[in-house]
UniProtKB/TrEMBL annotation:
UniProt organism field: Starkeya nomas
Region (Disordered): 29-54, 153-177
Pfam families: Cytochrome_CBB3 (PF13442)
Keywords recorded for this protein, A-Z: Heme, Iron, Metal-binding, Signal
Biased amino acid composition, Low complexity: 29-43
Cytochrome c domain: residues covered: 64-149
UniProt name for this protein: Cytochrome c-553I
InterPro entries: C-typ_cyt_methanol_metab-rel, Cyt_c-like_dom, Cyt_c-like_dom_sf
PROSITE patterns: CYTC
Metal-binding recorded as keyword: yes
Top-level taxonomic group: Bacteria
């Protein structure tokens, strides 16, 4: 195709933009941005934008919240989203979704649910906004899935975990009621 006029160039740009959602995402892409810890409070890490993030030491030790996130994901999310966040016939891969999905949208979806209906399928994510078994740990679940999505954490339970931060139990008990 030669680009002799503006119409052909416009058509090519429109075609490329239409195909953009189907392009493979770059390795290590993260919908929340750079996952590198920029600050820490009570053993929980945040990136430069203030999003919850993980910290994995060179020896493979994960921060406490990543470890708890694995446990809580397995207890509350795995039934639909599959082992290790890889998806199932019931729900999509969250490892893939977090390539483009940031923390704010993740939190909104978990809290309020989501329903997508079209002629070939009906996808429903229930709202968990009043479920303390999910909402008390939603940041930890996100942190675990973020580490999985970024390729920083393999399948299965983390083998080494940092110790429980001081004050964690009191915060957990207050949230759970």
């Amino acid at each position: 195709m030669t680009m002799r006029n503006g119409a052909n160039a416009t058509l090519l740009v429109a075609l490329l933009l239409a195909l953009l959602p189907f392009a493979p995402s770059p390795v290590g892409a993260d919908g929340s941005g750079d996952p590198a810890p920029a600050s820490s409070s009570g053993g929980e890490y945040s990136d430069r934008q203030g999003n919850p993030t993980y910290k994995i030491d060179k020896d493979g030790t994960v921060d406490w919240y990543t470890s708890v996130g694995y446990l809580r994901y397995t207890a509350n999310c795995m039934q639909c989203h599959g082992p290790d966040g890889l998806g199932s016939s019931f729900a999509p891969s969250l490892v893939d979704a977090l390539q483009t999905l940031g923390y704010e949208r993740f939190l909104d979806t978990v809290t309020n649910g989501k329903k997508t209906v079209n002629t070939s399928q009906e996808l429903v994510m229930p709202a968990f906004g009043v479920n303390p078994n999910v909402m008390c740990y939603v940041e930890a679940i996100f942190i675990y899935l973020r580490a999985r999505s970024d390729g920083a954490l393999g399948r299965g339970p983390p083998q080494k975990s940092a110790p429980r931060p001081a004050g964690y139990s009191a915060t957990e008990n207050a949230c759970m009621g």
